[in-house]
Automatic annotation (TrEMBL):
The keyword Lyase applies. Gene3D superfamilies: Aspartate Aminotransferase, domain 1, Type I PLP-dependent aspartate aminotransferase-like (Major domain). This is threonine-phosphate decarboxylase. Pathway: Cofactor biosynthesis; adenosylcobalamin biosynthesis.
Length: 354
């Protein structure tokens, strides 16, 4: 029996099984708001039986459709952006890489395992945590001279910060001049297309990651795309190997990317719902910022809030690096919204000691 010294798993939302075991509430009674996934995802079309019998066709038109959708010269389909994060360290030259202190948790361990020197940064809203970071990332300011690469999640998960394209491309320009790379994770940008730099992804030193799981609500399909220059695309394609995205998933994602009417309607719906969510959280003591897919509230007693909500069958994601809560969108029905509001009211009463 092998004794592997494996690193601990990175915690994520969607861990409803943990809540079921901890609180003894049956799974079907929970409202799971622990992720930033659209609760009313793309309506999956009928899939022909033959799609389950054949190997996936890596030469179909899925990547061409994705490239057109993102406005990029090319697109590489992966089994979710998570798979891309595991491959990226293999195609970038070694050097110090900046990763946010409060951001998607898989980047730092992936690059550290590959031998990169990971330098954590904070942005201006978290300047009080500067002592935990190597540098502060500020628009219009020079990056640290030693930095080779930078990972930027835009909008950031979970803190909802947004970075304008001209700011993003200024950081890219600085890194490219020193032979480095800017990795822009746009997993949540589909609802905010004005933030995207996907159309610039052919430039040397820029890699853009796009996700199908969040906006389209197709997380179970496990499909994402890498948008990059031809050399990086070729290198990642070789490492990816064949048949990484299943045939049925390719069919569903192709339909979703082509359905522009659904996309337009969904952007409007998510914008209204997320505004309502942030206002509701604020009414009960959580000062929340939001993207169209989730809200974030910095909260010193986040653990108490998570526990109080969980005892009422509502599961949210708690962060410890910077104490706070990420709350995803409820399903778009009034009964779910009413249940969430009642739970927040109860938590506010409990935390206020009334």
């Amino acid at each position: 029996m092998f004794d592997y010294d494996l690193p601990p798993l990175v915690p994520h939302g969607g861990n409803l099984g943990d809540a079921v075991r901890r609180y003894g509430i049956a799974r079907e009674r929970w409202i799971d708001l622990s992720t930033g996934i659209n609760p009313v995802g793309y309506p999956v079309p009928a899939i022909a039986h033959q799609a389950w019998l054949r190997l996936p066709d890596d030469e179909d038109d899925l990547e061409t459709i994705a490239a057109l959708h993102y406005g990029s010269p090319r697109a590489l389909a992966m089994a979710g952006t998570q798979a891309a994060i595991r491959v990226l360290p293999e195609v970038l030259p070694k050097g110090p890489i900046g990763v946010g202190l409060l951001t998607y948790g898989e980047y730092a361990p992936a690059f550290a395992r590959a031998g990169f020197d990971v330098e954590r940064f904070v942005t201006e809203p978290f300047a009080d945590r500067q002592g935990q970071a190597a540098f502060v990332l500020e628009p219009g300011h020079a990056l640290p001279e030693n930095l080779k690469h930078l990972v930027l999640v835009n909008p950031n998960n979970p803190s909802t910060e947004r970075f304008a394209p001209d700011v993003v491309m200024d950081w890219h320009r600085q890194l490219a001049a020193r032979g480095g790379t800017l990795v822009v994770d746009e997993a949540f940008v589909e609802a905010l297309p004005e933030l995207s730099v996907a159309s610039r992804a052919d430039e040397e030193g820029l890699v853009v990651l796009r996700s199908i799981g969040k906006f389209f609500g197709l997380a179970g399909a496990r499909v994402g795309f890498v948008l990059a220059s031809a050399p990086i695309d070729r290198a990642m394609r070789r490492l990816r190997g064949p048949w990484t995205v299943s045939g049925p998933a390719r069919i569903v994602v192709r339909a979703a990317l082509l359905d522009t009417a659904w996309q337009t309607e969904t952007r409007a719906r998510l914008a209204a719902a997320s505004k309502r969510l942030a206002e509701m959280l604020g009414a009960y003591g959580l000062d929340a910022s939001h993207t169209p897919l989730f809200a974030w509230a910095r909260q010193p007693n986040a653990q108490q809030w998570q526990d109080c909500l969980a005892r009422q069958g509502i599961w949210v994601r708690r962060f410890e690096t910077v104490a706070g809560l990420r709350v995803g969108l409820p399903a778009f029905d009034e009964a779910t919204w009413s249940r969430l509001e009642a739970a927040l009211r109860n938590v506010r009463s409990e935390t206020d000691g009334r």
